User: What shape does this take?
Amino acid sequence: MSSQNRLDFVRFASQEGVLRFGEFKVKSGRISPYFFNAGLFNSGRSVGTLGQFYAQALLDSSHDFDMLFGPAYKGIPLAAATTIALANHDADARDVPFAFNRKEAKAHGEGGTLVGAPLQGRVVIIDDVITAGTSVRESVEIIRAAGATPAAVLIALDRMERAGADDALSAHSAVQDVQQKYGMPVISIASLDDIMQLLDEDATFAQYQSAVSAYRDRYGIKG
Assistant: This one.
């Protein structure tokens, strides 16, 4: 994805209130100077635009794929929106199937935990971010159990952040760990690099630049 497209996405996320700056206690217990909550893409227009960004990032990656898989629950609307965007893409329209899972097995009707197209071929897992990698692990297990191949993970934002206590930080980010553990690429629409570029270029956000930079120096990896 081009640098301009990545920056456009960061601006879009900020305008939608999905990307915010300030002080936020995140799941790890850290106080982060920024917060990204993809659940706030919650209208038809915003989810439609988000799907276009996902589709473009996937196409620009040039990785081969046959279908998308959206892990419950956040991945479900992301998979649907992205396949719609792929089908309507101006330059490279593709009618791509998708599937998702339920958290609990359905005992009636078609039963089971999988909904949508049969899992087959090269499957891209789509989610918002990767934190502990639990969703990816569960998705990989589901895809492999169906006889298909996990081909890549597609996310909105790579935080480029190491995990662990301050005195025992992991050597790699969650994204890097997923890439190494499963031997497949993680494609992101944008990353912390692009957030930093927005802070550098837009005076509106200048007051947050030093805090985000310090946080990255402490917990980040180099892109």
About this structure: The chain has a mean pLDDT of 93. Helices lie at 3-15, 44-61, 75-87, 134-145, 174-182, 192-201, 209-219. The domain at 3-219 is CATH 3.40.50.2020 (Rossmann fold). Strands lie at 19-25, 31-36, 67-70, 98-106, 112-116, 122-126, 149-158, 186-191.
